[in-house]
Design a protein that fits this description.
Layout: H1 5-16, H2 18-54, E1 60-64, E2 76-77, H3 78-85, E3 90-104, E4 112-119, E5 129-132, E6 142-145, H4 147-153, E7 160-167, E8 170-182, E9 192-196, H5 197-203, E10 217-218, E11 220-225, H6 231-241, E12 245-249, H7 250-255, H8 260-292, H9 294-302, H10 307-339, H11 350-367, H12 369-376, H13 380-383
Parallel strand pairs: 4-9, 6-8
Antiparallel strand pairs: 1-11, 1-12, 2-10, 3-4, 3-7, 3-11, 5-8, 6-9, 7-8
Length: about 400
């Protein structure tokens, strides 16, 4: 079986000018590296903001009204929690308290800022442990640490963790036993630790002045639904029956975290401009290639070569050059990501990476459309300089 003419012409030209085509492939590889790296960085930074909220067990989150879905700004009490729990369609609720503190060990050899969450053991909001066991009681001096804390500090189940918090203007130290390690649970760009709600109320930072508040308050309520009610319907029902609350799903909650949307828009804009640069680079290269071989194309057409063969030849060159560049770029991205320190939040999600790579594969043919159109318009006599 003979080789098609268009494939023969494409391979011959690419081999004779392999240095030039390889150079363009390397440029595409750099563009691929940048696009995929930006996608991984955007996902990693978004997880640093949304991971805890996105992994909550319950489907809905209750905030205080006028808090703009901000966890630190929201203040709720037990009376509201009881009312939410009585709403038809609610299966179970769990209170969530949030504070920022520093952690260390008995020797005070290091110090790290973390998000401190108070949760009700056995209720929605308590993370599932991968090692150790769940919290044993409402007032237990126990803590579950996130995987990021365990990785960065080397702490394990059975070790003692010291929480440093400022209470009434003075620094207080609280020793807690690590009983479990959960998966990644970051919030506000910090790793997270989890303690019983009553313990959280005792060790969280407090202001110097006492506001006279006798009952405990927390920041949000995680609601587990009784199916099949829709999330939107149950959220509206809770807001109708319970005053001064705002109810939303997990995705809306983490998208409302300050800076999250601006961050994602910034990365999406950067990726868009990078793809545009890729189109211009590939398109510009093949346009120059086209201008340099107008005489050759004119000779081929004079010999009876149809436009289809000319077009397929160029498309094949564009596809091979672009695909090689994408392949090299993807491999380089994997090597770069493996060499980066864990402190740099790079997370590759299969679907996002696949979309980025497929998009990059299409920028070559898209950039070469002008060249293909120009080649089909070449007149043999004009190209050979024989027209009158």
């Amino acid at each position: 079986m003979s080789t098609p003419v268009w494939l023969y012409l494409a391979s011959k030209e690419m081999w004779r000018n392999r240095g030039r085509f390889l150079l363009v492939s390397l440029v595409v590889a750099l563009i691929t590296l940048l696009v995929v790296f930006l996608a991984g960085l955007a996902e990693g930074l978004s997880l640093s903001n949304k991971e805890f909220l996105g992994k909550l067990e319950g489907e809905l989150i209750v905030f205080q009204e006028q808090a703009n879905l901000s966890l630190p700004s929201s203040q709720l009490g037990n009376e509201i929690k009881r009312k939410v729990n009585r709403v038809s369609g609610v299966d179970e609720v769990g209170a969530i308290g949030f504070s920022s503190v520093f952690i260390t060990t008995d020797g005070n050899e290091w110090e790290e800022g973390v998000s401190l969450f108070g949760i009700e053991p056995g209720k929605p909001g308590e993370p599932v442990t991968l090692e150790g066991h769940q919290l044993s009681g409402d007032r237990a001096k126990e803590v579950i640490i996130g995987r990021h804390v365990a990785t960065s500090t080397g702490l394990m189940v059975g070790d003692t963790l010291v929480v440093k918090s400022t209470q009434a203007g003075e620094e207080e130290l609280h020793s807690l036993e690590i009983v479990g390690i959960t998966d990644g649970q970051q919030y506000f760009f910090q790793p997270s630790i989890f303690v019983p709600l009553q313990t959280w109320d005792l060790i969280r930072p407090t202001p110097i002045l006492d506001n006279g508040q006798s009952s405990m308050t927390y920041n949000a309520i995680n609601v587990k639904m009784v199916f099949p009610p829709k999330e939107e319907d149950l959220a509206q029902l809770i807001q109708q029956e319970v005053q001064d609350v705002e109810v939303t799903d997990r995705r809306t909650a983490y998208e409302a975290v300050p800076g999250y949307q601006d961050q994602q828009r910034t990365f999406n804009t950067q990726q868009g401009f990078t793809l545009l640069i890729g189109i211009l680079v590939v398109g510009g290269f093949f346009q120059i290639q086209t201008l340099q071989k107008v005489g050759q194309v004119g000779m081929l057409k004079a010999l009876g070569t149809p436009n289809l063969v000319v077009s397929l030849t160029t498309i094949t060159q564009i596809f091979i050059t672009n695909s090689l560049g994408v392949l090299i770029g993807a491999f380089a991205t994997v090597l770069l990501a493996s060499a980066l320190p864990p402190s740099i939040p790079i997370v590759f999600v299969g679907q996002q990476v696949a979309i980025a790579l497929v998009t990059l594969l299409f920028i070559g043919p898209l950039g070469g459309l002008v060249s293909i159109r120009y080649l089909t318009k070449v007149e043999p006599l004009t190209a050979l300089g024989l027209s009158s």
